[in-house]
Amino acid sequence: MTLIGVLIVLQSLCTLEMKETLNGLRKTLGLCMTLLPTSRLSLSSLRFYGKSKPFHGDKDVAYSNSSTLGFLSSTQALADYATLILDLKKNLSATESPVVTFGGSYGGMLAAWFRLKYPHITIGSLASSAPILNFEDITSPYSFNNIITRDFRSESENCYKVIKGSWQLIEDIANKQGGLDTLRKSFRPCKNHISAGALAGWLETAFVYTAMTDYPTPSNFLNPLPAHPVKQMCKAIDDPATGNDTFAKLYGAASVYYNYSGDATCFDFYDDSDPHGLGGWTWQACTEMVLPTGGNNEESIFPASEWSFEGRASFCKMAFNVEPRPNWITTEFGGHRIENVLKRFGSNIIFFNGLRDPWSGGGVLKSISKSLVAIVAERGAHHVDLRFSTSEDPKWLQDVRKREIHIISQWISQYYQDLST
Prior knowledge:
Blueprint: E1 7-12, H1 15-28, H2 30-35, E2 40-45, H3 59-62, H4 66-69, H5 74-91, E3 99-104, H6 106-117, E4 124-128, H7 143-155, H8 157-174, H9 179-187, H10 196-212, E5 219-220, E6 224-225, H11 229-238, H12 246-258, H13 279-285, H14 309-320, H15 328-333, H16 338-345, E7 349-354, E8 372-377, H17 395-420
Parallel strand pairs: 1-2, 1-3, 3-4, 4-7, 7-8
Antiparallel strand pairs: 5-6
């Protein structure tokens, strides 16, 4: 069998994310495929996500209790990948072929950790939007929502003020006689029941995910969205046709996220379905992935609040009868004083972060060494570099991808030079 030039294993979280990122990689890594025509791109989802269900594919058994869910962890996922890669290389008669790992979001964290834990299996990793520093006290719990606030405020000061003031207004109207009827008429729920809390949660979800996926081109990652969706939300809020009707402004903004296609006639504020296959994340957030992101200061676009580990622990006790381990990730993979630690032994990792992505606050934003490279895009959003490449991509995004491919090509060339000596 012909030797495979490069085996690329994609690590990612949910099915939709994997499909989009895989297609993006097929395009943006075209240069690697051109340099090494016998390269192979392999997609793998970790157990419990997508179609990768343990216990003979029985989801009910896999999710039935903490004993079965105990196999869902980052450490187990990395060991699975290591076993899979070695098996693939053997089956493809490609035992001498280099492996480069890619991932975005949680998959990006896994990609970085895989290079650190299994340097004998992968020659390098691209960790896109990987908040590996978003643990314990390394990153401020206010960082996540501060970035969302900055995103909206950068588009329009009025947009920021309308959203910021809306939470108290919703509460005040809901507490008035006939107030819930006002909210029903303004936001058109599919079910007759509505509450201030459900409405606020629905709106907050829209603002958070729109900021996260504020891509420069149209996307269909979480929901169908136009290019620059934060800008489009603020346009809806600033639309003079809505006058002083705050609820009309909010409805127009939320419709950018929930109804850009224009097909929806009503909205379900109580929808607890899992269209993106993220059910396993709740378990991980209750065991090891304790990322403090819920803090809001006085300038935040959301109501002022403190991040509470006690609140997380209480929920996890109720949901799974487990206690979160907030120190486990930094114990297993590190994170404190990462610059000093990684420059002593780490190599060949690209950390990409877009500064419009709220997760970028927990990312590696400065290069640590010549081979531990941080690529930061001021206008970038959540793992935008791994998305589809199109003719509409801005030059800064094209340049990011070219730089990533150039670095990866150097890793591959160096590997083959070392192999020949």
